[in-house]
Design goal:
With 243 residues, the chain is an all-beta fold. The chain has no helices and 20 strands. The strands form 5 sheets. Strands 1-2-3-4 form a 4-stranded antiparallel beta sheet, with no helix packed on it. Helix content is 0%, strand content 53%.
């Protein structure tokens, strides 16, 4: 008889009700952040599993959250990206960004939802997108400073850890794009490279820099039984099959 490995549950986190879904989670130190279907973000203590804070204000369910020091960023179906001070839970965010109200970003045929976001390593810039075009925002001024244009929606976007001037993103349309900002602050320019994927909708990207071996490894997954692997952002050179 085939032996089946079983996982034992050590502990669980209880959300407010059985109908509250945790759409996205993030870990930071001893805290677990959950962006949920009831439009709220919850913080639980990892040791006690008790709720320690919640953030309210979104008008629809959450798609993405990021933690950067004492700041929490959340984005959802209501089209807003909200910045919170994790030390001051409640319904008053530090700032709110509404990409769908920017005429250069708006795409009514895709909707206003924001499904992807990330914060630059220095904490000064935010990239977000979904229905609206993927865009880079200056957090201090709240202004959109760059557009990473693509005809597709972005389900996932993140800064490249080994190169903070680059953003890798994907969604529908069978493509993974790396967008790079070049030049200087006075005369900036940008360019992008694209990889053709066999996955129709990509929802997750993992990136790791192997400094000792001098190469970067990226993996992409989505609505497919395969996980694609790519070295140095040049071409997809292998696949893992999930059975």
């Amino acid at each position: 008889m085939e032996q089946v490995n079983q996982l034992n549950t050590n502990w669980t986190i209880n959300l407010p009700s059985d109908t509250t879904l945790a759409n996205v989670i993030a870990l930071s130190g001893e805290r677990i952040f959950s962006g949920c279907s009831d439009n709220n973000v919850y913080i639980h203590d990892k040791e006690t599993q008790k709720e320690t804070a919640r953030f309210t204000g979104h008008q629809d369910y959450l798609h993405a959250i990021r933690v950067a020091g004492d700041r929490l960023f959340s984005a959802g179906e209501d089209g807003s990206v909200r910045c919170w001070d994790v030390r001051a839970p409640g319904d008053k965010p530090i700032s709110v960004i509404l990409p769908f109200k920017n005429a250069a970003l708006e795409r009514k045929h895709f909707g206003k939802w924001v499904g992807s976001l990330d914060v630059s390593p220095n904490g000064e810039w935010l990239v977000c997108g979904g229905g609206p075009r993927l865009s880079v925002w200056h957090l201090t001024s709240g202004k959109c400073v760059h557009i990473c244009d693509s005809p597709n929606v972005a389900h996932v976007a993140q800064y490249v850890p080994s190169d903070p001037s680059s953003i890798i993103f994907a969604g529908n349309g069978n493509q993974v794009t790396t967008w790079k900002l070049g030049g200087t602050a006075e005369a900036s320019s940008s360019f992008s490279c694209q990889l053709d994927s066999s996955i129709d909708n990509i929802f997750s990207i993992a990136y790791h820099n192997y400094a000792d071996l001098d190469y970067n490894l990226s993996s992409f997954s989505g609505d497919s039984f395969k996980i694609e692997l790519c070295k140095n952002g040049k071409y997809i050179d292998s696949e893992l099959f999930i059975s």
